[in-house]
Amino acid sequence: MPTSTQQPAPPLPEPLRVPVADSHTHLDMQDPSVGEAVAAAASVGVTTLVQVGCDLERSRWAAETAAAFPSVHAAVALHPNEAPRVGDRASLDAALAEIEKLAALPQVLAVGETGLDYFRTGEEGVAAQQHSFRAHIAIAKQLGRALVIHDRDAHEDVLRILDEEGAPERTVFHCYSGDAAMARHCAARGWYMSFAGNVTFKNAQPLRDALAVAPAELVLVETDAPFLTPAPYRGRPNAPYLVPVTLRAMAETKGMSEDALAEHVAANTARAFGY
Ligand SMILES: [Zn+2]
Ligand SMILES: [Zn+2]
Question: Which helix (H) or strand (E) holds 248?
């Protein structure tokens, strides 16, 4: 994972006229306080945040933060890279039982980020990730929560396991990284695709091709901050207040006005997470 740098934070962008949500952020990994991050985002029309926990402790923190800030909702899970680190199968199952308890809290709207990450994962890690992914799918369905998927270099297995288990009614691919063919596959199943700052990168034409074919009714925007700062601010710290930069680039790719895309994104995010 890229680390945040000491470079100065990018300036506040021009505010959105139609407010939207950052569908995926990690406030616990950003320098400003939650109050500062929420206020900066709201000042440019990013009025709702989904705070994502990646291990048990951070999931607890996400739930506490969502309880304390009305505009913050929580998602809880063991990240796919965390699943193999928990220990043996019994420890993993014990941690999953704790995630299930957190997921039942009213301010927790989603189970995730879960899924598969084959970027630097050996065979044993893959087995733990797949077990964990299946368990998260079951929790989301049992509790009627949205499922937030992290899919890195694992498209085929993610799609296969979702079909084997049966995806929850509301399923979100965070930091969507598939191509246009996969976007059509997701669209046919009614799965949401959340685009992050990397859609603005010069070398990301395949991602823009995917966004171009994704139905406007299924598109979300996110920062995944502190990671994936959008162009032209690459290398500087990312934060929810930079959503307008990515959304404007997305509107251009889709040939839509900024307001029209923002209206879709606002409604889609509320529908996907159920708020
Ligand atoms: Zn992720
Ligand atoms: Zn994330």
Answer: helix 243-254
